[in-house]
Amino acid sequence: MTIQWYPGHMAKAKREVQEKLKIIDVVIEIVDARIPLSSRNPMIDDLTSHKPRLILLNKADLADSQLTKQWVQYFEKKNFAVLTVDAQLGKGIKDIPMKVRELAKPLLDKFRAKGMNPRALRALILGIPNVGKSTVINRLANKKITKIGDRPGVTKSQQWIKVGKEMELLDTPGILWPKFEDQDVGFRLALTGAIKEEIFDFQETIVFLLNELKTSYPERLKERYHLETLAEDITELLDDIGTRRGCLVAGGLVDYDRTAEMIFRDFRQGKLGHISLERP
Ligand code: G4P
């Protein structure tokens, strides 16, 4: 679900996250593996600086695996714990409790030093809309938890879900807003479904995608649209793709809207292969 963020919403979302953080030992931040920086709110670092944090690079099944490896190294260099996950199929999910334990070792040691039996660790899932928070929660819970609207202010009573013996997870995630002051960040969010594509000019979004594909995945473009060469000029490239695919209007001219929609669909359905839109 994509929502509009107004300053009031943002302030409220921040307050709600801060409130949840008070009862939490470990934060599990979810980002989209295809756009690991664009799919996080920069404020998260400040908000959660006092908590151990595990970053999940989710939707890894859609991302470029070579780049995902580089992103893992990128975050590890910054001293984050990081896991690559495909929540839809459940890949990587079983490693989460172990990582959470590793992260919370100082806390567990503190309990033991006081002669207390360590209690279950309390974790919170946090991220912008559509990165897969509910899917991860459902996977960890091993059942379907009702999803609330991605809307600050829409609250339901929160409950702890037991994940094994040593971890408890809040059944409602913390939701932060996407930040897209930079236009390219907005294009990446629109292409991956974090924000509605209508927020951005659709043609411009596709031009951004074509430029990315031309630079980083030229062979995929050639293969998918049966092109021998890729035109320098993006309008010409759109022309070539539209012509090849028969997206034409009367008179044999290329229908740019239909061509752009087809490219967008191909990208979303993974027909252009595993593609990441951001490099470390
Ligand atoms: P949210 O709570 O963070 O808002 O995200 P949610 O779990 O609802 O997931 C958003 C969409 O992403 C869902 O698709 C979900 O199935 C998909 N998704 C989650 N994790 C993965 C993953 O690892 N791989 C892939 N390929 N997809 C994943 P949806 O319900 O069809 O929504 P939409 O895609 O139509 O927006």
UniProtKB/TrEMBL annotation:
Keywords of the record, alphabetical order, are:
Cytoplasm, GTP-binding, Hydrolase, Nucleotide-binding, Ribosome biogenesis, RNA-binding
Indicate where this protein resides in the cell: Cytoplasm
Tell me one GO biological process term.
Answer: ribosome biogenesis
Any signal peptide, and if so, which residues? none
Stretches assigned to the CP-type G domain: 14-178
Please tell me where GTP binds in this chain.
N58, K59, A60, D61, N130, V131, G132, K133, S134, T135, G174
Q: What is its main location?
A: cytoplasm
Give the CC-aspect GO terms.
cytoplasm
Q: Does the keyword Ribonucleoprotein apply?
A: no
**What InterPro entries does the entry give?**
G_CP_dom (IPR030378), GTP-bd (IPR006073), GTP-bd_ortho_bundle_sf (IPR023179), GTP-bd_ribosome_bgen (IPR019991), GTPase_MTG1 (IPR016478), P-loop_NTPase (IPR027417)
Q: Name one GO molecular function term.
A: GTP binding
Q: Which family does it belong to?
A: Belongs to the TRAFAC class YlqF/YawG GTPase family. MTG1 subfamily.
User: Which PANTHER family does the annotation name?
Assistant: MITOCHONDRIAL RIBOSOME-ASSOCIATED GTPASE 1
Q: What does this protein do?
A: Required for a late step of 50S ribosomal subunit assembly. Has GTPase activity.
Its assembly, as annotated, is: Interacts with ctc. Interacts with the immature 50S ribosome subunit. 2 molecules of rbgA bind to one 50S subunit.
Q: What is this protein called?
A: Ribosome biogenesis GTPase A
Tell me what organism the protein belongs to: Salipaludibacillus agaradhaerens (Bacillus agaradhaerens)
Q: Which gene encodes it?
A: ylqF
